[in-house]
Write a structure and sequence with these properties.
With about 190 residues, the protein is an all-alpha fold. It folds into two domains: about 100 residues, Rna Polymerase Sigma Factor, Chain: A, CATH 1.10.1740; about 100 residues, Winged helix-like DNA-binding domain superfamily/Winged helix DNA-binding domain (Arc Repressor Mutant, subunit A, Orthogonal Bundle). It is about 70% helix and about 0% strand. Helix 2 crosses helix 4, helix 3 crosses helix 4 and helix 8 crosses helix 9. The longest helix is centred in the N-terminal third of the chain and has 23 residues. It is globular, with a radius of gyration of 18 Å.
């Protein structure tokens, strides 16, 4: 049986019936997205790896207890667990998150991009760095919505449920984030290529 062709729900069922390879496929399928979402919140590679492991331990426990809700997508559910663990970590440690690049890890290195020439790669890298710096300068609520929407690929409905605000509030925060980014670009005479 080729587990790579099965949907997430089928993999979960197989895993619960003792097929460890099904969980490995589920992990392989979603680990980059979930790790990236965690890293964007904590900005520390070691901490992100620790939280990532905790997320998958919690996922395994939840699956084994039969508490997984089949209505949602696995990826979104797992991302929500990751988000909640990050929030809990920061509440415990009273730290604020920042979104910016580092020498160790860059979200854009994880993303698959088509081959470009070196000049195009430099331009793209500079553009991504500029956008990350601008996102990092946003107020916390706006930054959170941008990260969840564009990096964790969550819908506004999911963002509103996750952050305990109305959909209109989540949409408003995104709107203000975009306005603020445009304003910062104008003030700093930044042109994205």
């Amino acid at each position: 049986m080729q587990v790579s062709k099965l949907c997430d729900q089928e993999l979960i069922s197989l895993y619960l019936n003792g097929h460890e390879s099904a969980f490995k496929e589920l992990l392989d399928r979603h680990q980059k997205k979930i790790y990236t979402a965690i890293y964007l919140f904590v900005k520390d590679r070691d901490l992100a790896e620790d939280l990532f492991q905790e997320v998958f331990i919690k996922i395994i426990d939840t699956l084994r207890k039969g508490s997984y809700n089949h209505e949602g997508k696995f990826s979104q559910w797992a991302t929500r667990i990751a988000y909640n663990m990050c929030v809990d970590h920061f509440r415990r440690n009273k730290k604020r998150t920042k979104v910016s690049g580092s020498d160790d890890f860059d979200i854009f290195n994880v993303l698959e991009l088509p081959d470009e020439n070196r000049e195009e790669q430099i331009i793209i890298s500079e553009t991504h760095s500029t956008v990350r710096r601008l996102v990092d300068m946003l107020p916390e609520e706006q930054r959170e919505v941008v990260i969840l929407r564009h990096y964790a690929d969550m819908s506004f409905k999911e963002i509103s449920a996750l952050t305990n605000v109305s959909i209109n509030t989540a949409l408003g925060r995104m709107r203000y984030a975009l306005i603020n980014i445009r304003k910062m670009m104008e003030e700093k005479s930044i042109v994205l290529h």
